């Protein structure tokens, strides 16, 4: 028999939620597992290893962020954008961008709206690297989803995209 001192701490929620506790627990558990895998860079390493030229994992993260920004023409791709996308402080982002520039994957260009501001673009080498990264990651995801019915694959993609968009708008 457990005494109150031995009982596991109860989960306390500060506000009522319309989401079932079991759903929240399942999502939390899955997200913790994903975060652990990502922190080990278990997918980034094979991507970097399959590149025609060696690439640093931090440079790979920078070119991914610059590539993402290039798909959003309404927002200039700056060091601040990279910092935001990588969830790091601007000074660290600046150092990583400098390394990506030195490696020939990223180019600093003057902003067309504000000449005092530098924007970032991928070089041909950077575009080739990000293309190879997309290919390697998508091949991995294809293996993961193999055997899932097409309807479930599409639904998973839709819900995951919706979830990630929520991550961008709701603060902890």
UniProtKB/TrEMBL annotation:
<dbReference type="Pfam" id="PF12802">
    <property type="entry name" value="MarR_2"/>
</dbReference>
<dbReference type="InterPro" id="IPR039422">
    <property type="entry name" value="MarR/SlyA-like"/>
</dbReference>
<dbReference type="InterPro" id="IPR036388">
    <property type="entry name" value="WH-like_DNA-bd_sf"/>
</dbReference>
<dbReference type="GO" id="GO:0006950">
    <property type="term" value="P:response to stress"/>
</dbReference>
<dbReference type="InterPro" id="IPR000835">
    <property type="entry name" value="HTH_MarR-typ"/>
</dbReference>
<dbReference type="InterPro" id="IPR036390">
    <property type="entry name" value="WH_DNA-bd_sf"/>
</dbReference>
<protein>
    <submittedName>
        <fullName>MarR family transcriptional regulator</fullName>
    </submittedName>
</protein>
<dbReference type="GO" id="GO:0003700">
    <property type="term" value="F:DNA-binding transcription factor activity"/>
</dbReference>
<feature type="domain" description="HTH marR-type">
    <location>
        <begin position="20"/>
        <end position="165"/>
    </location>
</feature>
């Amino acid at each position: 028999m457990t005494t109150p001192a031995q009982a596991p701490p109860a989960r306390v929620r500060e506000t009522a939620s319309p989401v079932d506790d079991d759903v929240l627990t399942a999502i939390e558990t899955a997200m913790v597992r994903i975060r652990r895998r990502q922190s080990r860079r278990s997918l980034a390493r094979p991507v970097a290893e399959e590149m025609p030229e060696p690439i640093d994992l931090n440079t790979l993260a920078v070119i991914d962020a610059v590539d993402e920004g290039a798909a959003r023409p309404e927002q200039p791709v700056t060091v601040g954008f990279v910092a935001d996308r990588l969830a790091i402080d601007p000074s660290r982002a600046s150092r990583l961008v400098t390394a990506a520039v030195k490696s020939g994957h990223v180019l600093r260009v003057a902003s067309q709206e504000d000449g005092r501001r530098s924007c970032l673009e991928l070089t041909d080498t950077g575009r080739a690297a990000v293309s190879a990264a997309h290919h390697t990651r998508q091949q991995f995801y294809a293996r993961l989803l193999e055997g899932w019915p097409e309807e479930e694959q599409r639904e998973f993609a839709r819900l995951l995209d919706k979830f990630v968009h929520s991550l961008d708008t709701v603060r902890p």
